[in-house]
Amino acid sequence: MPLTYPIAEQTLDNGLRVVVSSDRAVPIVAVNLWYDVGSRHEPPGLTGFAHLFEHLMFQGSRNVASGQHFSLLETAGASLNASTFFDRTNYFESLPSGGLDLALWLEADRMGYLLDAVNQENLDNQRDVVKEEKRQSYDNRPYGDSYERLVRLAFPEGHPYAHMTIGSMADLDAASVEDVHAFFRKYYGPNNAVLTIVGDVSTDDAFDAAKRYFGHLPAIPAPPPAPDGTIGPMTGVQRDDVTSDVPSDLITMMFRLPVDGTPELDAAGLALDILAAGQSGRLNRRLVRDEQIAQSVSGGALPLIGGVSFGTLTGIASDGIDLQKVEDALLEEIEKLALEGVGEEELTTVQAQAERDWLEQLATCAGRADEISHHALLFGDANRINTRIDQVQAVTVEQVQAAARKWIRAEGRVQVTYRRTESEEQE
Question: Do the domains spanning 8-215 and 236-420 agree at the CATH topology level?
């Protein structure tokens, strides 16, 4: 089922890759900028820097006062945000098409001239913002530190995926303005980014605008490659058991998976979907509906390009149920999948769910722009948005079982459990 979204590409003289997908259906345009820097690029002692810049990039640049990036775009009717991940950082806005020039000017000004505004005061301010984010999202939220615990168990010390994007607060405390400037100069340049423009603009006008606002910015020296994170499936079992102020007992298992962009990862991802995706997933049918030992189950693959990906399965125990029962049931279903495989109907169901999710993502200009940037930056192929679902549909039941046997194994996992404190259980 090949899709036919139009894709046009140019590379500016400074190395900026520009991708345009014209869509005149509605007067909306999406601007999406992906930088090839994420937490896996951070060397020891500089963890959290990519995420720190997600904040600093909104604090002004040479021609934009602090706070104006948001206010100018929101006044123009835009929705905007940014995010940091293991493999990349992205910045994006969606707004009425008449605001395209404003969006591109703002993105170009901070790409070229952010450091004019990064001083000690701004660094201290945003460092405090990141610390507060960590307190709210990781430290003081139920189960908030589960992924931090899991990746520390799943990957050896020093592995590029062994720390979360939030980074180390000690590293951020030790960071000087000079450290921060050096990190920016290393990664934030036109030749280390992909700019995607999708929506109500002609292809020629979009390219002309990209050249007008970004074409004069100088290229940066080629950034160092991220360290190779290639590593095989996990062997053995490692556990981290937590007693905490949580609303319910919970278990999350993590498995290392194949690298993104391979049929083997597609197969492993579909295997996890068969277990945990939707109401028809095996775990939901057994643990939630039939045995009623779990309030909910969830899981899936997290694709990564640095030599390995990972996937998770999570179960939240029903009130009064020993969490060990949930763990035992999860392990039984994992082993059953590897031993007995899957049926054609099961596979067709999760493939149809994947197709629906993909089409929903591409249905909006913002969603399409993000996926185009994703595939252009990480795979060098923007047109992959038109062929991606066919790759998923091509996976066979034999491939799913083979991936489950190799990667999703009861004897090759890490897990974190959270149990309520005794006083809460007695209440």
Answer: yes
Q: Which architecture does CATH list for 8-215?
A: 2-Layer Sandwich (3.30)
pLDDT digits (tens, 9 = 90+) for 345-359: 999 999 999 999 999
**Average pLDDT of span 212-240:** 96
71-112 pLDDT tens trace: 999 999 999 999 999 999 999 999 999 999 999 999 999 999
Reduced to 3 DSSP states, what percent helix, strand and coil does the chain have, rounded to the nearest 5? Answer: 45, 20, 35
Q: Where are the domains of the chain?
A: 8-215, 236-420
- Cite the DSSP H helix spans in 342-383: 344-362, 365-379
Name the token pair of 159: 């592995």
**Is 270:351 a contact under the CB 8 Å cutoff?**
yes
Summarised one tens digit per residue, pLDDT across range 233-246 is 999 999 999 999 99
Find the DSSP H helices in 277-393: 282-283, 323-340, 344-362, 365-379, 384-393
**Which pTM was predicted?**
0.95
- Domain 236-420's class? alpha beta
